[in-house]
Design goal:
Length: 405
């Protein structure tokens, strides 16, 4: 009798052990292949010189990624996009799809916009040992049959001017990698598009949603989802410039804005808001990557907290104008919008996100807001996933989810 009771338990334990062994083996495979790819990545990110102009989304080159998650196919891509001035730039990223036949009409694509990793080329997510690590919800999306495209943004991966917190070039790259994904012969990607972004990526995804109809009309945008979005840059900067996070964010933004707006403002007007100590430290901080060199950034930024700028950028020109120009909400969004926000977030504070949602409501958007008690900024996207997948099912079914307005 005891043997009869134990047998199902033993079978279950054996099955669990097999699954764990397979997962461990796949993890080892991905690390080994990821290290091998890292050793040979560098030439891939160097575009042809001169770069022959081509339509946005045109693939310059692509290569398979051997360390793709089990059950998927993936490619590293280099593709054409446009900067703030409309000039052709090369941008890098990754595309990953389920390793099974695509449905009729192609797979729906989720274009992922990543949170801040830094502003230097080597901070690109696609250069990491695991180039898919930052794509929150990746495995669930693949299991549901979605294709995922993840841009690095201009200036990350490929050497060039940073696009940090610049809504137009970031959003261009988010939309153009969707075009590139459709052009991959074995990707099976259709024209249906969803946008998903966290923090800095929330700003990029929202700008992409505002501009998709005019910039990429051949794509059928179905919805946009964001977690703790950097939607209102004036509020973000005003809230955070007095702390460590704000000092770090500003140090990444200053060089990007200097380069992007050189035709409108001399360098002295952009960086004139910095204290002498802030001006001296900015190039050193901007050269570091947030996730892998956090300690080094903090060592520079900590002594500058409260002494990095001479005034609040959100109320000081030309920063006040430039931050407003790069804040979401300049154009209405005519597809469903999902917003997730942690209530313990001290970077993108809940009141700022609630203010952005009120703006969406005033513009007539179909928007849902989910708040999560105890959730910090870093965990906002992960906390959003259960509600996000329910929302995606509604959107994919052609229904308009109930609105928070």
């Amino acid at each position: 009798m005891r043997t009869h009771v134990r047998r199902p338990v033993l079978v279950l334990l054996a099955a669990v052990a097999i699954v764990l062994a397979l997962l461990a083996a796949d993890a080892v495979r991905r690390v080994v292949e990821g290290r091998s790819e890292q050793a040979t990545d560098a030439p891939f990110y160097v575009p042809p010189t001169p770069l022959a102009e081509a339509a946005p989304g045109t693939i310059i080159r692509s290569e398979p990624i051997a360390s793709a998650p089990e059950g998927s196919l993936a490619w590293r891509v280099l593709y054409h996009s446009r900067d703030l001035a409309g000039d052709d730039v090369a941008v890098s990223g990754v595309v990953v799809v389920p390793d099974r036949p695509a449905p009729e009409g192609g797979r729906t694509l989720v274009s992922w916009a990543h949170p801040t990793t830094g502003a230097a080329p080597r901070c690109a997510p696609s250069l990491a040992l695991d180039p898919f690590e930052l794509v929150e919800g990746l495995h669930e999306l693949l299991a549901a049959g979605y294709a995922i495209a993840a841009t690095d943004y201009p200036g990350l991966g490929v050497d060039g001017a940073s696009s940090y917190l610049l809504g137009v070039p970031e959003s261009n790259s988010v939309l153009d990698i969707a075009r590139a994904a459709r052009a991959l012969p074995d990707g099976g990607v259709g024209d249906r598009l969803l946008l998903w972004g966290h923090s800095q990526g929330g700003q990029a995804a929202l700008f992409a949603a505002e501009r998709a109809g005019s910039y990429a009309p051949e794509l059928t945008l179905e919805g946009v989802a964001v977690a703790a979005p950097a939607a209102n840059l004036n509020a973000l900067m005003s809230d955070d410039i007095v702390n460590l996070s704000g000092t770090t964010i500003a140090s990444f933004a200053v060089p990007a804005y200097e380069a992007a707006y050189a035709d409108r403002y001399p360098k002295s007007e952009i960086d004139g808001i910095l204290t002498p100590a802030g001006a001296a430290a900015t190039p050193r901080m901007a050269a570091l990557c947030l996730l892998t060199e956090t300690r080094e950034i903090h060592a520079i930024a900590d002594p500058l907290v409260g002494g990095y700028v001479t005034a609040d950028p959100a109320t000081t020109e030309p920063w006040q104008t430039l931050l407003r120009e790069n804040s979401a909400g300049g154009q209405p969004i005519d597809v469903p919008v999902f917003v997730g926000q942690g209530l313990a977030d001290r970077l993108v504070v809940p009141a700022t996100t609630e203010g952005y949602v009120r703006l969406l409501c005033a513009q007539g958007a179909d928007v849902v807001l989910h708040t999560f008690p105890g959730i910090t900024h870093a965990l906002a996207a992960d906390a959003s996933l259960p509600e996000l997948f329910l929302w995606l099912a509604e959107v994919e079914a052609g229904r308009r989810p109930s609105t928070a307005c």
